[in-house]
Fold these 2 entries.
Entry 1:
Amino acid sequence: MHDDVTHGRRSVADHAAAVAGLVAPALAAARERTAARVDVATLLTQVGAGAGLAPRVLAGDAVATVALPGFDNSQMDGYAVRSADLRGASGTAPVALPVAAPVPAGTQPPPLEPGTAAPVMTGAPVPAGADAVVRVEDADPPRFPAFDDAAGDPSCETTVRFAAPVVPGAFVRAVGSDVAAGDLLLPAGTPLGAPQLGALVAAGLRAVELAPPPRVLLVSTGSELAPAGATLGPAQVHDANGAALTAALAQAGARVTTRVVPDDPDALRRVLADASDDVALVVTTGGVSAGAYEVVRQTLTGAWFGHVAVQPGGPQGLGTVVLGLREVPLVAFPGNPVSAYVSFELFLRPVLAAATGAAPARRPAGRGPLAAPLDSPPALHQVRRGALDDAGRVRMVGGPGSHLLTHLAAATVLVHVPPGVAHLAAGDPVDYWELR
Ligand SMILES: Nc1nc2c(c(=O)[nH]1)N[C@H]1C(S)=C(S)[C@@H](COP(=O)(O)OP(=O)(O)OC[C@H]3O[C@@H](n4cnc5c(N)ncnc54)[C@H](O)[C@@H]3O)O[C@H]1N2
Ligand code: MOO
């Protein structure tokens, strides 16, 4: 779309579509392969014990075992009546009916005798024969009589008056009006959150089909890399990408296995050969640009490597590797830490979150005026790190350099400056994604 300005580089949208086209089917297949029946009560115990509700989607349709509601019940504290009995009721000619035994929630009432009104509590069954409920405050007297024994018999012979007719069905929650027994409750692919767990339990399901989070093999490449916490030797750097992307992938619903390999194709081949056979996706960082030791590029001879019209995150790779008997997608991000993280946000997070049900499915987007002018390379979609000030203006946090990890850590938004834009003035509107 911006080919005229991006000098033939792949657009962000095209690369995102290419990644999704390869990764989404692989994640869907992994879900099918690994789905298992999970006991709902066990799941609830784990969630309550603080395990959280890891992002998960239902791997199979959940079908209601019981209807919701399971029986006609009252929406209000009131009188269950036969609407026909109140047909002629008016303020000048109220209808007086004897009060029958009350119906507390959790009890099964006898049928309603014609010409009587039964006090019925919210959620209690509407007696057979009754077809409407009149709220207690709309009756005369506007309160229930005292009930003097456990059986709930009114303490004395008592009547209640109604000064208006009632439409059939008023304040009656009909059996199956939410879902009927045997009907689809939640389709496969529904993210499992709190309301869904409530619905599963309400509809009587004892077990559901769930897939474990997909396993991602995250490989940081670079002979300069040292593990977290290690004392650095000369020219070494800590593996920041392994840390940031482990967390980012996990938040997006993946289980992550991390590996660090030096700039040696044999070392990368060994890591791939040793990979667990449940890996659904490989993500690499580094080793994709124009240097003399580009380990990912040298190892994946059949993959696509090229430039996307974005900064940071320009050099990208995409292909497949054979792990065991399966062909698994491999998404190669550049090594600079901000480039790797921004690449994840642009290209992988959306498809991963859609597959796992992680929230938010998309980063919340906003638009606000710039606090200060900025320049941008017009051939590229620039993604800057920013924050909103108290007036809702978007200010930059640090410069565009893709090594400025501390500024990324301080940012709360990613600011998008589209291709074709070389300069924006203070006050010009920009789009942003909220990171937290
Ligand atoms: N001649 C050219 N050089 C470069 C180009 C180019 O087009 N022509 N592109 C530049 C851009 S843009 C990027 S981004 C990088 C991408 O390079 P690689 O993906 O090959 O990454 P490396 O060279 O391995 O590393 C780049 C940089 O990031 C540091 N790094 C790598 N991995 C980690 C990690 N896990 N944790 C922390 N830091 C890491 C690494 O030490 C380097 O400083 O290429 C430019 N060059
Ligand atoms: O794309 Mo690089 O990511 O600009 O530093």
Entry 2:
Amino acid sequence: MLILVANLGSTSFKYKLLDVSGELTADVRPDDRVLARGAVERIGDAQGDGEPTSRCEVTIGDYHHVYEMPVPDHGIAVQSCLDQLTDPQHGCLKDASAVSAIGFKAVHGGRKSGTFLVDDDVLEAMAEMNAAAPAHNPPYIAAMKLLRDRFPNLPLVAAFETEFHDSIPEARRVYAIPPNWREDYQVQKWGFHGSSHRYVAERAAELLGRKDARIISCHLGGSNSLTAIQNGQSVMTTMGMTPQTGLPQNNRVGDFDPFALPLLMQRSGKTLEQLLAELASEGGIKGISERSGDLRDVELAAEDGDAKSQLALNVFVEEIRRHMGGMIVAMGGVDAIVFTAGIGENSDIVRSAVCKNLDSLGIQFDEERNQNHRGSSPPEGGNPGEGYLHAESSSTQIWVIPTNEEWIVAKRTKLALSH
Ligand SMILES: Nc1ncnc2c1ncn2[C@@H]1O[C@H](COP(=O)(O)OP(=O)(O)O)[C@@H](O)[C@H]1O
Ligand SMILES: CC(=O)OP(=O)(O)O
Ligand SMILES: [Mg+2]
């Protein structure tokens, strides 16, 4: 059984074609089930001099190709993925009917939190949340409609990011808002990045050799969120009603006081819609650095002495540490801190700053391991890119675990098809 997983991130498009045949027991290695994979980076990113381009990568069996293209939108990226998979020379599919379903790492379904076959009601539920997830829902809806038109007989499945957080206790998901807002308008902390945090929960349990560990999963990428995990379940997360909240995001604001808005309207003469659009595209790391939402650009500029870029990095790290502290108290301790996604897997600068001076909490970071992590081989039985960064004497383990959202979405898609 083949499932194509489409992962439309705020800054990227990634896909994997996965074979999910048979029973997916714990000894199945997800990497052994990948038939093809591809990624397009820096979607919607118009930084730098000259014509902006995206770096693209595709691997189909032994065929590996890296190339550049003018920055596409998500629709063009999805089309090019299908063209690659069905290419007569390098492709691995005769046509799309060889695939049992396309699974989407869909973001905000509001009243639909779970995994569903995409029908008009699911598309409507997503559209209802467009204002809450402006960087995520519209491209997913467009891609789903495009694929539904092109392959009317192919099941499309939406695995919503909120589902993993359904286990968060009420006292950590209720806002202190006026009566009825929650019941009548579904205003509550939903939480996102569920596939990534669920993958981290599963993989960390394997690497730690125990299922009851208290874990803080740090998903730091285009969008950023931390999740506290206990007994494999989400018990607290930083994103709230929308994926704009919690930590500063690439170009979206993070936590912010809503009462600044009426003042901003009076002082700037802008409408609420204009201000919200700015908060969701000109804020976050991009807003503070006044340079870019891509941390690679910000780290380079900070290294060259750019004060605003250094401030963006400092705010980002302070916010991560503030939330981490809350999670450690909420769980009564932490057995493992895990870094994942584009920043978590690649930025030794952020990992080091986040873990600084925590020895008194039993969190001892090994800076040398951190510096040497890239290019080092994983511990025995580990996947590429995995490794630990804690000192041998640390009571809390610190890991880098490359996320595998596509594996979680593929498993959930298979389950949804069987119902
Ligand atoms: N080598 C690197 N060093 C620092 N940050 C990186 C590096 N590579 C990628 N990133 C960051 O990761 C982000 C992409 O993360 P990713 O999780 O792939 O994104 P998405 O949110 O689009 O799914 C980039 O925007 C950039 O900020
Ligand atoms: C919320 C979400 O899914 O974010 P991203 O893919 O941009 O990291
Ligand atoms: Mg992502």
